[in-house]
Write a structure and sequence with these properties.
The complex is a heterodimer.
Chain A (H helix, E strand, L loop, with lengths): L7 E2 L10 E8 L5 H13 L2 E12 L3 E10 L3 E2 L15 H12 L3 E7 L7 H7 L16 E5 L6 H10 L4 E5 L7 H16 L7 E5 L8 H4 L3 E3 L5 H14 L18
Parallel strand pairs in A: 6-7, 6-8, 8-9, 9-10
Antiparallel strand pairs in A: 1-5, 2-4, 3-4
Chain B lengths: L8 H23 L1 E3 H10 L12 H13 L6 H10 L10 H12 L10 H36 L7 E6 L4 H13 L4 E4 L27 H18 L4 E5 L5 H10 L4 E3 L4 H6 L3 H18 L2 E3 L3 H6 L6 H17 L7 E2 L1 E3 L9 H15 L6 E3 L9 H17 L4 E3 L12 H18 L2 H4 L7 H22 L10 H8 L19 E3 L7 H8 L2
Helix pairs in contact in B: 1-11, 1-13, 1-18, 1-19, 2-3, 2-6, 2-9, 3-5, 4-6, 6-20, 7-8, 9-11, 13-18, 14-15, 14-18, 15-16
Classes of the chains: A alpha/beta, B alpha/beta.
Chain lengths: 264, 537
């Protein structure tokens, strides 16, 4: 559907545009007549009118769970729907593995570390360890990734050296500690060292992550990508595939891939 | 006993014998090595507590200092108790805590140099260490007796399976009221999930903690606070409510020790989880695990193994036999460490893709196979996670079927599945709905396992036989794997782990975290804790 095509919709219960919805919630009050009234009041304020409490059940000492059915009068204009788009497609594990296998034709190597004095490996481990985070497995789980997790308190020269010997396609750095802007200084030092050590076309992709970064500060910090709070391994994997494979193989492939001469 | 699956007893014996053959070299390895964490656990048994101003526990400081001066391979007991005598810090107190802590402080300041005593000095140090460590083990014994008394007075849950519920706010003072509410709502076992990343910390944090990442840190004080709160609930409810935590990661032996000292009742303790999912060095893991299990055996703690984890990465049908293999290995390692069958909460999970035809019958076959292979173990039955989506209604149905398999196959411990598994950490109402689901199934079909006998030669029996056959094949491959003796002495098992036989992870014995804290026993290695624990059996 194009964005300009105006289309109004309302929730659908069992008839077009009847506006029927169903919600459930808990109120911190014991279950009685009064609490049911409270549930109706909340539902009405939410725009459900008329609201029917179809289920109320006390839980423990002073909590009640409600299920409410009712009609809303709100209209949804499909032409006004705005969705935030990420600038790379989010891929599933299978697509990610297939893209690497078929188009890179070797494993994609990722070297990860916490640099400086930062000992908080929570972030890097959540992204790299099989265990992963929020029900998503980490990059180790992807068959076509080769993951080298250097752990905590890695010095920048060591990281550059390992990236070179492992022939890293991407370097992932996690920074949690932000005292005196340590995360920004460390990241700048790291990106400068990589620029010095590698010719531009052979430099691994530099990715940093941490809860306090501004995702838009890539230029200032000299890295290719910044990931903030709530990033999952799949976000990172999709991004890596996008920038190392998909974006690379658009028509502008007049440059033979210099990535470790694996362009065969 | 009567078997519902008509398993061939010769095959079952063969599977066990193969597991023993695969596990034996690993046990030999564990018996001939120590780790920094094992040595720290010994010091904790001797009563050392507390941490330096940076939060690094004194046990870490002391072990690091000894390792720096004489290495880890002799154990810390002799150098430490020799230094105590030399410094005049020995007292007649039954628990030597305060004085050993003082020694740790001095060692951290660099004013003590440790040496390995010989002759009469060594004899005296051995005796003193044994007395101090023995006091810690006596404390564990007292806590076990205390539990037995409470269970006798208050009683066990009326039904099987026991209902196991997770609490995880990150703040121990929030966890406590939630755990008490869960117990009131019917939970028999409360598990406090640990903060993400604790398994990779090479020290145990100190004190009560109020912030964690998706979980609450395991600390001795948090253990104590929660156990005290659940003791209150137990009295109120007239049944003993059990407490669970996690003995895994780089501090596994220390956490096992703290659990024994604070009367925790169950501990997650898998033989390979840390290796496969946390990239912890295999030798470190097996050494730490043997000590942890010896402590658990002594403390009367029920261990829970983690086979469910394999199924979150691998396909639950294709990889069903790897679960069986891991169960057999976990059983072998557990028995070897002195755990009795009633202490083996061997894990498995309801993780088959629900879109697969006959998925429920397959689940029944797998669950019944575990039941029949380990008839005297409680078995820990884990709910669906991998195929849970944001569709909470479907999730609730799936959890109902999971509960049904649990009761039809006589599982001992049932972890309550949450319909919001894939959405958020459970809300109050999610827990209530989930417990209602369990209660309905147990109430409606609690005795169904008496009637449920799969048809001879039918789908369920055939599937169970197939999984057992595949498990035996895999065990044979492990036993036949040619070990690379130059790299390690762990036999085909370590080679198989290095080759990625379990899950898809390749974990070489020379890699992974925590390897630098592993040391081969030197001639004269002394560990009073192991000596006491092994002399009891």
């Amino acid at each position: 559907m194009t964005a300009t095509e105006k289309k109004i919709v309302r929730p659908y219960g069992d008839m077009t545009s009847d506006g029927m919805v169903q919600v459930s919630f808990t109120l911190p009050v014991p279950c009685d007549k009064r609490s049911e009234g409270a549930a109706v009041q909340l539902a009405t304020k939410m725009g459900i009118d008329p609201a029917m409490v179809v289920h109320a059940k006390q839980m423990g000492e002073g909590y009640t769970f409600f299920v409410v059915y009712g009609r809303v009068h709100h209209l949804v204009d499909m032409s006004q729907v705005v969705v935030a788009e990420r600038d790379f497609p989010l891929l599933g594990a299978k697509e990610i593995n297939t893209a690497i296998k078929q188009r890179l034709r070797r494993k994609l190597t990722v070297v990860g570390a916490c640099i400086g004095t930062d000992a908080h490996t929570v972030g890097i481990d959540a992204i790299l360890n099989v265990k992963g985070i929020a029900g998503e497995k980490g990059l180790e789980y992807y068959r076509e990734f080769r993951v080298v997790n250097l752990g905590a308190q890695v010095s920048v020269p060591d990281l550059v050296e390992r990236a070179r010997t492992e022939r890293a396609d991407a370097v992932l750095v996690s920074q949690v500690v932000t005292q005196r802007d340590a995360h920004l200084h460390n990241t700048k030092e790291m990106s400068a060292a990589f620029r010095e050590a590698f010719p531009a076309e052979r430099r691994p992709l530099l990715v940093v992550g941490g809860p306090r970064f501004d995702e838009l500060a890539t230029g200032e910090l000299g890295v290719d990508r910044i990931f903030g709070r709530g990033t999952t391994p799949r976000d990172v994997a999709s991004y890596l595939v996008h920038s190392l494979i998909s974006a690379k193989q658009l028509p502008s492939t007049h440059l033979p891939s210099k990535r470790h001469g694996a362009a065969a | 006993m009567t078997t519902k699956l008509d398993l061939d007893p010769t095959l079952v014996r063969r599977a066990r014998a193969l597991a023993a053959r695969a596990g034996q070299p690993v046990v030999d390895l564990a018996r001939s090595h120590t780790t920094a964490a094992v040595e720290r656990a010994v010091l904790r048994l001797a009563g050392i507590t507390g941490a330096d101003p940076d939060g690094i526990p004194w046990v870490n400081r002391l072990v690091d200092a000894v390792a720096g001066d004489v290495g880890l391979g002799y154990g810390v007991a002799l150098p430490v108790w020799h230094a105590l005598a030399r410094e005049g810090l020995e007292t007649e107190k039954p628990v030597g805590g305060a004085d050993v802590t003082l020694l740790a402080q001095k060692a951290a300041a660099g004013s003590i140099r440790f040496v390995l005593p010989t002759g009469r000095d060594a004899t005296a140090a051995t005796r003193a260490a044994r007395r101090a460590v023995g006091a810690g083990i006596k404390q564990i014994d007292r806590r076990r007796t205390e539990r037995e008394r409470l269970v006798k007075r208050l009683g066990n849950p009326k039904q099987r399976p026991w209902i196991y519920l997770i609490v995880a706010t990150g703040d121990i003072y929030e966890d406590i009221p939630q755990a008490q509410a869960a117990a009131r709502a019917g939970a028999d076992v409360i598990a406090v999930i640990r903060s993400t990343g604790q398994s990779l910390l090479d020290y145990v944090p100190e004190g009560a903690t109020r912030e964690g990442f998706a979980g609450t840190y395991a600390t001795q004080e948090n253990f104590r606070l929660m156990r005290a709160a659940l003791d209150e609930s137990s009295k109120e409810l007239g049944r003993y409510v059990r407490l669970t935590n996690y003995a895994s990661g780089l501090c596994m032996p220390e956490i096992a020790t703290l659990a024994g000292l604070e009367r925790l009742d169950m501990m997650l303790n898998d033989s390979m989880y840390g290796i496969l999912f946390r990239d912890i060095n295999p030798i470190r893991t097996f050494v730490d695990q043997r000590f942890s299990r010896q402590i658990h055996a002594r403390a009367g703690i029920i261990i829970n193994t983690g086979e469910d984890n394999y199924l979150t990465t691998a396909d639950a049908v294709e990889a069903a036999h790897t679960v069986t293999v891991s169960q057999l290995l976990n059983e072998y390692f557990a028995h070897e460490a002195g755990l009795a069958d009633w202490q083996l909460g061997i894990g498995h999970a309801f993780e088959i893709n629900p879109d697969l035809p006959e998925s429920f019958r397959l689940e029944l076959a797998h669950a019944l196979l575990a039941r029949e292979l380990f008839p005297d173990a409680p078995l820990k039955w884990m709910p669906p996670t991998k195929h849970m989506t944001g569709d909470v209604f479907r999730g609730n149905l799936l959890d109902g079927f999971f509960n049904l398999v649990g009761t039809m196959t006589g599982q001992g411990i049932l972890l309550v599945g949450m319909m919001t598994e894939a959405v958020a950490t459970p809300w109050l109402s999610d827990r209530d709905i989930a417990l209602q689901n369990v209660r309905y199934v147990l109430n409606a079909a609690g005795g169904l396992h008496e009637d449920f006998v799969p048809a001879p030669g039918g789908f369920i029996q055939r599937r169970a036989h197939q999984v057992l056959d595949e498990a035996i094949d895999l065990l044979e491959r492990i036993v036949d794997t040619e070990p690379d003796a130059r790299r390690h002495a762990g036999g085909g098992m370590l080679e198989a782990i290095a080759d990625g036989t379990f899950g898809i992870m390749k974990r070489p014995a020379t890699g992974g975290k925590g390897l630098d804290g592993v040391a081969r026993h030197e001639e004269g290695y002394c560990n009073p804790a192991t000596e006491i624990l092994e002399s009891a059996t």
